[in-house]
Design brief:
It is built from 6 helices and 2 strands, in the order E-H-H-E-H-H-H-H. It is mainly α and 124 residues long.
């Protein structure tokens, strides 16, 4: 069972930029990105295959005590049961990579990213 993966290079760069400007920790940014991506809906098959040249993250850093909740939400979006080997790292990584791009888009429209996200459809 895998407990770590590397983000895509693009996701690492995006999250590093947001970290520098917003002073939010990587675990917080990872959870925000994951949540935005899950909120958007199911992944396209091509989104499951991104590079692994970014930052290495551990399962507990990303999902923490809410691992079962994240798994359930991803399964609901995908409309099927995900075996552990698919859920982590494949789907969590894909959602994190897509979510980083979504987070970057939201940041463009926000003076205060956290306040903006909190009001995005009354929270994520």
């Amino acid at each position: 069972m895998t407990y770590k993966f590397k983000t895509s290079r693009q996701a690492e760069e995006i999250l590093d930029r947001i970290d520098a400007s917003e002073n939010l920790s990587w675990p917080t940014l990872a959870r925000l990105a994951l949540s935005l991506s899950i909120r958007k809906g199911p992944l396209m098959e091509i989104e499951l295959f991104t590079d692994s040249q970014g930052k290495e993250l551990g399962r507990s850093t990303i999902t923490g005590e809410m691992d079962a909740l994240y798994k359930c939400l991803i399964e609901l979006q995908e409309g099927r049961f995900l075996p552990e080997e698919e859920y982590f790292p494949t789907y969590v990584k894909a959602h994190l990579d897509r979510g980083a791009r979504l987070l970057e888009q939201e940041k463009k429209y926000a003076r205060d990213l956290v306040v903006h996200l909190a009001h995005l459809e009354r929270s994520i």
